[in-house]
Fold:
Amino acid sequence: SSPTALTYSFASDTNTGIQHTGADQLGLVVGNARVLMVNANGVHINPSGASGATNALDVVGTATVTGQLDVDNLNLNGNIISNTATNQHIQLMPNGAGDVYLQGEVVLGDGITSATQIGATTRGGAVVGIDVTLYAGAAGAGADPNLAGGDLKFLGGQGKGTGVGGDILFRVAPPGSSGASYNSVATALTISGNDKSAVFEGAVTVNGNLTVSGTTTTVSSTTVSHADPVLQLNQGETN
Structure:
């Protein structure tokens, strides 16, 4: 307590009372420590000693709220964080190079009624777009050798019965004519959710070996060029 503070305590409990520390400020003393302080700035709560508020509410230590909590346009109630303003974003913004870590699975909720997107925001001004990298987990750090990394899986939506599963589409935006308009988006690769077939809409280059294990190989191009000096037909067959 301040040496000039005037404390109105209880006769049966002299360590507890109301404390007037000066003009326009009032404190609450418990256990001979000022745990709550009210001044023109707001309320300061500190179990080890409140010295005065610098904001509307200053809390030192853990604060427990039983029930919902409203902070500006955000409402926290149970396990739900919602926005009370109409058509407003909820943003998680770490400082500088900080990241947002989400523990466990991330699932888009059942409140979504149409197609949705996950992607980087469109930037303003004369700057290039933001790169987005999806990666699976690396093996644990440390001296343990020969540990595998995690798989990166892309899964189309599951159908039921005769319903076809969702396709997996890889889409790009090839360059157009000079200008400030966005280029048109086109599908470069489609993996069918019906029969697992894949269709490439552009050229395909294979830098390793290519093995075809199906029953037919069909080439419908105008020109077939082959640089190898030896072509083996009927390899491994007896007739």
